[in-house]
Amino acid sequence: MNWYLSKIIFRIICGDGDHTPQFDEQLRLINATDEEEAFRKAMVLGEREQDGFYNHEQKLVQWKFINVAELYKLSGLLDGAEVYSRIHETDDPDRYIEFTNRKATHLRASGTPKLLELL
Hints:
The chain has three helices and four strands, in the order E-E-H-E-E-H-H. It is flat. The longest helix has 18 residues, at about 95-110. By secondary structure, the protein is α+β, with helices and mostly antiparallel strands.
């Protein structure tokens, strides 16, 4: 068996969709015998994890599966290897840095599971 890193894309639609388009890019680990099986498994994950719920304004919020956008075979795990990178643009760099530092402080104090509560 081999490990693969897949990027699964969902579109987030709130209400009638009259808002800035949003996409959720999820990186998922897939254990499979080959690339074809890994792609199939990633597709099944995406289809199975489509979701919908009503927000506090009683508007339907939907996660609609778009596709598997990327698939990489992991030949081995290396300490410090880059797995993901994204350029984030903001009009308020100080706020972004403060938020990042606050998450790091919370992580140091509580551990990884508590980080999800902060977000």
